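S2.1 Query sequence (N-acetyltransferase domain-containing protein)
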Amino acid sequence: MATGKSTRAIEILRYDARYRDQSMEVLRKSFFQQEIVCIGSEVNLTPQAQQDLEQLCLDVADGGVSLIARDTDTDTIVGVSFNVLQTPSSPEDGNYFEQFRDTKCTTDSSRALMQYMITMDAKVNLFERFRVDCLLEIMFLATLPSYAGHGIATRLVEESVKLAEQLKCGQVAPTGGDERSGTVVAKQPQLVSALFTSRISQRVGEKVGFTVINQVPHAEFVYRGQTFSDRAGPEHPFSTLVVKHICERERESLCEESESAKT
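Output structure tokens follow.
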């Protein structure tokens, strides 16, 4: 158990394939079992659906902007934030999540969860609303249950925002390749977005300074005759789409540091 664990013993790292199995274990023990929309779409009861979504995370991790939390005392991965760089897609091509749903999901449960993400994204076109051509989306955020309550998710979100700022300045680059689009790695995010589905993750977003753009009741989503809220219960009644602009002051500071390092 991690009772009393100091967050100073937890370091946040860019995702590394060395920790692939441990990162997937965080999803299996936390996200797939406890995430509201996983319960609503019965991903928590469908091992094959979980495998489908593990593949999604591994594909996304190849984009080089995902983060992991590591307990330095035990060399154990205790939290993950699978992030993806998104750019506008043409109507005929569809977005990456639509392509994944149609080509790689093998179960109704995983397709239902992907459809939830697609539906939520479609409600607000962030690219048009904020006039940006690239954003960093925090896609799947999870902490091992035994490490819950120690601010690890908050640190992962904070570091995801910082990574977006560094990418914007050109101070760092995505690690690894990106099979979705050869142009994505050349883009610089101007916005960070996330879908937070529980009051726990929503409070994390509030702490880090995200702005709520849309709020949608879980009763709106139906799987096999039951709404997501029917299965997940009333404690977490809605999902929120949230965004955070790249902070101009911090971005300018990072850019100045980057320029100094080049000279």
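Strands lie at 10-14, 67-71, 76-86, 135-143, 191-196, 211-217, 222-223, 226-227, 238-245. The chain has one domain: 10-176+186-248.
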